[in-house]
Amino acid sequence: MEGAHSDQNRISINIAPKDAGATLAFAIRLWLHVRPDIDWQNPPFTALQEIIKRCVPKRAPSETDIQGRLSSDFCAKYLWRKGDLNICWTDDLSKHLLLDGRQIYVFRDPFPPCLISETLETLSLLYRPLDIKMHKRNRRLMDMYLKADLEFAMVQQAPLDLKYYPYWHVRLRAIQDAYDGATPRNLRQWWYNRRDRVTWATFWLAFLVFALTVLFGVIQSVTGVMQVYVAYHPKGS
Question: With contact defined as beta carbons under 8 Å apart, do 110 and 90 qualify?
Fold first, then answer.
């Protein structure tokens, strides 16, 4: 009787594969903060574990010798000031440190646990919470983006060697290459970009000469106009 009663209370729900895929994608997004690409139209269907693996960078094997080192000024402040690279916050972990043109996506909620330590290191690398000079800028950014915690406790400054980033080293290298290859596009970037001291000094010397030439030209023009005016309107006339 109990079995029959249980069968009667059982509800059969028919869900279209497309709707089931959308529901599962939404659940994974809430769980792991990623946007999975699920194809429910063409079986055989991919296992959940494989779907999740495709959403985050593959960790380099422990025996892999990751080469390269980031520059000492590698942080969000100078990436923007010198390299014209802008930070764009995202809730999608799969986009963390993704370089799209001049835009760098940064994940603001380090999660899940398998990536939390290294993702925190990348945030420390970009925003330098232990650097007193960065405190004011970080506070301003946190006021603008309320969900971004840029002053999380860090024992030490994040390392610059890429070998310490088995998950994110490929994207960090891409950002560093874009930063190294960036050329100043406006006066602000020319002022802060002093990596090449000779080029920096040459540019500002030329700019100073140009500015003085324009200034003296304006002064000479104004003086000439005043002289003409005085010649045609002498005192006492």
Answer: no
Q: In what helix (H) or strand (E) does residue 202 lie, and over which residues does it extend?
A: helix 197-232
**Phi, psi for residue 204 in degrees, rounded to 5:** -70, -30
Q: Which residues pair with 88 in a beta bridge?
A: 105
CA diameter of the chain = 125
Dump pLDDT digits (tens) for 154-181.
556 788 898 888 888 889 999 999 988 8
Tell me which amino acid residue 67 is: Q
| DSSP H or E stretch at residue 31 | helix 17-32
Task: Characterize 26-56 residue by residue with b for buried, 16 or more Cβ atoms within 10 angstroms of its Cβ, and e for exposed.
Answer: eebbeebbbbbebebeeeeeeeeeebbeebb
Is the bond preceding residue 61 a cis peptide, omega within 30 degrees?
no
Could you tell me which of 125, 113, 114 has the C-alpha nearest to residue 152? 125
Tell me which H or E stretch contains 103. strand 103-107
Q: Where are the alpha helices (DSSP H) in 47-196?
A: 48-53, 76-81, 113-127, 135-144, 169-180, 187-192
Over the range 65-74, which residues count as b (16 or more CB within 10 Å of their CB) and which as e? eeeeebeebb
Nearest to 123 by CA among 99, 101, 105: 105
Residue 6's CB is within 10 A of a number of other CB atoms, namely 9
CA angle 178, 184, 185 (to 5 degrees): 110
> pTM score > 0.85 for this model?
no
Compute the distance between CA of residue 161 and CA of residue 130 in angstroms, rounded to an integer. Answer: 18
